[in-house]
Fold each of these.
Amino acid sequence: MSGSGPTPAVADGSGPVQQPTGAGPAPWDDAVLAAVLMTVDPAGTGGVCLRALPGPVRDQWLSIMRDLQPEGTPMRRVPLHVSDGRLLGGLDLAATLSAGRPVAERGLLVEADGGVIELAMAERIAPGTAARLTMAFDSGEVLLERDGLTMRTPSKFAVVALDEGVGEDEGLLNALLDRLAFHLELSDIRVHEAIACDYDVDDIIAARTRLRDVTIEEAQIETLCGIALALGIPSLRASIFAACVARAHAALEERAEVADEDMAVAGRLVLAPRATQLPPMEPPPDEPPPPEPEQEQDQDQNQSNEQQEPQELDDQILEATKAAIPAGLLAQLQMGKLRRSRSRATGKAGAMQNAPSRGRPAGVLRGEPRHGQRMNVVETLRAAAPWQRLRREERARVGQHSTRIEVRQDDFRITRFKHKSETTTIFMVDASGSSALHRLSEAKGAVELLLADCYVRRDKVALIAFRGKDAEILLPPTRSLVRAKRSLAGLPGGGGTPLAAGLDLGMLMADSIQRRGGTPVLILMTDGRANVARDGTGGRARAGEEATAAARAVRALEITSLMIDTSPRPRQEGRDLAQEMGAVYLPLPHADATSLNQAVRATTR
Amino acid sequence: MPIPFPFSAIVAQEEMKRSLLIAAIDPSIGGVLVFGDRGTGKSTAIRGLAALLPKMQAADCTYHCDPEAGDDAVCADCRETRKHGGKVKSYKVTVPVVDLPLGATEDRVIGALDLERALTKGEKAFEPGLLARAHRGFLYIDEVNLLEDHLVDSLLDVAASGENLVEREGLSVRHPARFVLVGSGNPEEGELRPQLQDRFGLSVEVKTPGDLPTRMKVVRLRDEFERDPNAFVTKWKRKDGKVRRLIEKGREVLPEVVVPDKTLEEAGKLCIRLGTDGLRGELTLIRAARGLAALQGDTEVTVEHLKTIATSALRHRLRRDPLDESGSTSRVERALQEQFGE
């Protein structure tokens, strides 16, 4: 953040890199170039994450990409809720029954060998589906162990993930994103800018034949790795992709060796969109002295005279890469980072849970329809179908003839459901003298409103109060609104502020809820001025330290939390505490009961 | 099958490589869990290891039983032959490394009626599943944290008992299934159930290397491999062979490795200090230290071995302490420092 942000002047100042227009390539040109390079080396680049809402620009890009594919290239579209059978393959029941022997059905991943897979609504793809894709990516083959079949089919494909996410929180899963070389953002491109592409299929085919012989030098790899490091890109795949893209671009431009221009393209298309930090403005001279050479086998002789050159080259490419980082992105990243890594990983409040009988259907499972589980008739019959001949013959052997379909216990299939796990809102109310006396009634009003809301959403609530020397659970998790109201009304005020004790208790409760598969939400109402330590003794300094430590622990557990500052004049310490907790901060003076309610809704949604 | 990237060409990630080699030397260690960042060569290492493992002597039966094993650890066929005084033929085979892909159905994992024979001949026959194929080898689960719950349950059961019991379609089959469970995953995509985590002997955390020379080396080697896999593998053949000999020698030495009382005592102290549940942690710690000693060609387990392997053997067995914000890795390291000083 302190790097003062990339200014447009930097973008124009990338002089040494030759570009036809001189002012840096337009985003659309780069997007098209990405489509071309992906097609030149589908296996090496993995594919494209195309972030854009459906519309003419995206359609134009897709049609260009499709037109670039040589004849006979398979194109497959994977819908959001694709079944395993369709994705990986399985038993083709109709063919199996008519042929009288097992016939396998090929899955989409196998059909797409050598081609392109389009992922529709990729921002909502389930982690499981993404993992199946990445497995095929990593091993270059689709491994099938289903329905009595075992198949290992080599399949290499590129993925075009159509990410229709809006805002920072919504986007392609990191596991998949990491494996795609190009991350394109088409939202800011206007329709008239989306012009046709200069390359055609013949260029692609020619480039593909050249690609194998394109070489990339040691120093160039060093440059790419150095830039990735300077831009704060943790994954090594980024550097590997950058090398691949540089070679693909060289092949496209009919070069046998990777040139500076190819490096610039790689930096711009692969590294820039992944940047998480700005490189230091003036690269300090003592920073990149590579402690070379370790045990290089063949390039020892030209090591010394190259030492100077890569440094210059470094700067050029770095400039070009930097120029491609959109302004404001870094500020966004900085803010969104914590949230992103959390919400994309473990899901939002109310994470999905398996359930026997409620929620959305999520696949079938072998088992008996007991304990209120629902039988899936179609799947049961499917499971029974292949065995009919065997079973009839078995029957015939003991003299029973029947033409009925024979369904046995092993065939039973039940539908599995998933539902959102239950949210428990834990209120931690500071009832001490300092905070409570003037504000407690207001806080109570707010909590009552929130309680009503929790009741509507069938959430559970729990109430913890801390005052005097200790914290206590006034109300264990319950759905009873009446009980919650009653215990809140009876909450006395006064005494010291044992903030750490309150936080500890809340956290223990949240942890046990998490362990039972629920989703806890912490709402802390305090003025943030701790003055009683965990052992009950007074003293502002130690109490404050302990409270900070406890708040950090809450953050480590990644519990969604909200802090409401109840002091008449909010001070920095309240804000600091919220930050340590990773909580949303809300000072009460700005919050009447209704806006408080809205804030909580927004946090717990 | 695509050519795997050579194990010896994997740059850095010493902890992961060491743990996999220890599991290869002593399968009773109970498997390896590899958790960490994307793109750190988790799958690459396991596929690479599979390619270089020394061959094993196996009986001529469906489950490639160990000809040296006792009667209770072989399949029904072998037992039958032995009972009648016959000699089971045996030959050298490569150690199986079986992938358990996501989306696998239960019948393929555990084994079920042979569909082909049922349909074409109307016969009832048992078709062994992945667990049978992995017997005496490795069962590799990528993205283990995304595996379906019911599959995990059956896996746990078999991994604990070393035996797979199939009761379905009127079949009743029991066969040995001892394998080294290797799981990999990314904690960002979902946590692993504590029960499953505990079953793994060693747990490794992998991180992307942060220094330029290492990163460069990774990219350069990868680029070289992609361009010509065959030539690359040939080039690294000798180094892979070295690793193989290391494993072979380690297996030879292993039965002779002794654990002095002093080391046992220190291991016990360390576990008490960390408050690990049950004795599994202590047992694994000792076993792993012994495996490490064998890997390094030593015949006595020293405190140094213990210190090297303690983090891998214990970090996934700590009780979650909500008051301690630091990760379990640093907790083990702290305990080590407290105990042994530095």
Amino acid sequence: MVATFEPKTDYKVIGTRPIRHDGYDKVTGRAIYGGDLTLPGLIWGVCVRSPHAHANIKSIDTSAAEAMDGVLAVITGADMPEALDKLVDLGEGNVNFKWASNKLMADDKVVYRGHPVAAVAAVDRYTAEEAARKVVVEYEVLKAVTNVTDALAPDAPIVLPDLVGDDLGEDVTNTNMAEHVRHEFGDVEGAMASAAHTIEREYNMQMVHQGYIEPHNATAVWDEEDRIKIWTSTQGAFAARTQIAGILQVDVSKVKVTPLEIGGGFGGKIPVYFEPIAAILSRKSRRPVKMVMERVAIFETTGPTPGGRMIIKLGADSNGKLTAATADIWFEAGANPGSVIGPAAMCVYAPYEIPNTRIDGWDVVVNKPKTAAYRAPGSPQVAFAMESAVEELCEEAGWDSMQFRIDNVSREGTRRGDGVLFSKIGMEEVLEAAKNSDHWNAPLGDPPLGKKRGRGMASGYWFNIGLKSSVNLAVNSDGTVTLVEGSPDIGGTRVAMAMHVAEVLGIGAHDVRPSVVDTELVGYTDVTGGSRTTYATGYACWIAANQLVDELKKRVGILWDINEEDIDFSDGIFNSKAESEKTIGFKELAGKLADLGGPATSIGNVDLESAGDGFGLHIVDIDIDTETGKTDVVRFTAIQDVGTAIHPSYVEGQLQGGAVQGIGWALNEEYYMEEDGSMANSSFLDYRMPTSLDLPPIDTILVEVPNPLHPYGVRGVGETPICPPIPAIANAIANAIGTRLYNTPMNAGSIMEALS
Amino acid sequence: MTTSSPGMVHVKTTINGQAHELLVPPYMSLLDTLRELIGLTGTKEGCLDGNCGACTVSVDGRIVDSCLVLGAEVDGKDVDTVEGMASADGLHPLQQAFLEEAALQCGICTPGFLVAAKGLLDNEPSPSEGRIRHWLAGNLCRCTGYDKIIRAVQKASS
């Protein structure tokens, strides 16, 4: 039975904007990120990487590197344990150790450019890099496949010869097709045949990267007791532990993972890359080994989100009601199976009520880095296709697309494309807020000379996840509370956790001192991902705080010599139900605990199946320079149902940051692949993420439809906002120049082509 | 340092107002000199090719990407890093504004932004929004969408 909660509004701490506890260390340079760690005797590890995207390894000669002064260990794929063919759930996605291990260090074949083939540890980074250059590898180069169409062609080179594909339950061999899934409801063909209006369009997208500024890193000690200690920047210390133990084939209790501060992840710091390699180098050298990834390798070898091909077909009746939809989606998995076909299917139709739907999804292996989660993984892609198609259907039928979205809105009870029925959701409220917004009602205005102006909008959706979290609380004698959690703080969640506790206890946010700790100091906690941390770890904080109140009532009972049932607690004050003038505040009680039974602690554990769906809509105005094709975003508004905003500044920040990642994806970002499978733009200079100069202020409208599944009404907020910008910009471009673009990135070159 | 290095370079420099005398390998970046030799890890590594600004420091009052400067080059110069921004009296107004305006999420780009923004405000106390956006275009932030960073710099400048 899932607990539900009535919405409240009379909060003391929830909804305020206290300074984040970890902020002081972060603005002064004191905060220790993964790359900042040093240990006595620390040495540096560096990978030797394949210059080819697809090749057989004929030989590896490490002798010159091993002979170098200052080199303490050299390893190759032969030093990696034989990988288990075993699927493990990491919270936001599964990992098969067989592929996870192969991805880290090639055995006899490289399947993406930059694939590690050896690793070197030496006294310092410069020496390790020099030694890595002395490892001689002989390759037999194979033809690479870098897109889904080529990979599925009958004569395509096979990336993984031992891959067994799953085609709707049937095994397939000698293939790059890892999985084909289908969701079908209603009479799709009949409804499409009788539709008054239909539209069918194909969309193609290029792979893009999360683009976090902090490089991947890991420091490892493999000690004499065969215990492995890892310090790293990870979105989940426990997920990292699961992967490291699985790849190294040791019990999880042999591995301790300490999550240091993390400099961005967006899903890309759920997989491990260096951790097991650093551990093996440490075992061989008997020294602490640190590794920090170079930027080229981050682009070439760590999880981007898939590009691919999508065909959307929509059918509507003469009144502008959607009756049928089909989606065919081919996503690049990268060099190992496992793209985000599942989430894409969950998201594609989510803002709409459509009675008859079919989705077919294919997970396709190509010679590119293995994809990882990236902020609403799979959803921005299908939002681009679906929201572009909706807009074009409305244009062709002569319907107002805002009214169309309202007339077809999904609500409580609507069936999602994968069959799940929505609980209380806020898409209607989002549309209402959008329709009434300043931005939507503002005249478009005239563009500067030589430019064309357009406005576009689009919806977006992420389901958000719940999963497992554990927190501990302890009362200090000065009336503060220590909060221990296992959710790495990637964007200000420590303060949100503290606020959950403070609200219950009637104390200030800064009276709760939050810490993110290692895998031996707190119970199992899933990754910071899926927009789950404030929802699920926050929920665990609420449980722990309420248990602490129960515990403290016992202590008040000792103090007053009455039963705990005869004590009330509200707003930080305990009082006797029988004698209302008999009260004691939380802080005063805290100071007396030493004489009232000693330490007072509590634990909150959750494993939440449901989370609360997140819907948003963005409105964008753009100017297009008709001579250069350059697009300037001149006004942007992100509207989203956020449930309850615990700390509104960080909720706004999620909407703004997600929107800007979407803007970059829409206009400029891509993996520009050469035919040989190398990425031509693997630097920040050439990949060209948005800078402050490229953007206007990002306005936000927080719509609060409390989520009944959380005590304060929290919904995840982080992922939804990356979904609408790509189609919103596509719609704005069509509005500005009268020509629609069906491929990303919609860069200056594509616009010049469209204009000519 | 490295056992295979050629001759070290003798460097006398002032870092955050404190004199340092160092032997720096000739190939070592200022970034690594600060982080590895002196232990000032507040200056962050992001890309090592001068494109993200996470390693921004000030050399004789001019902001630079410390990954593109050699440690040997700061001989006789004043280097200022994020660790030198706060004083005994408290945080620099930019640091305080970044906290109040929630201008950081993960925080890895924050030291670079703070040093770069200080470089602007030291010379132009009241820059326009456009000027701030232009000045900070060499610093990448992937979390915030820059909105709150710009507001924080505006707050500290007024």
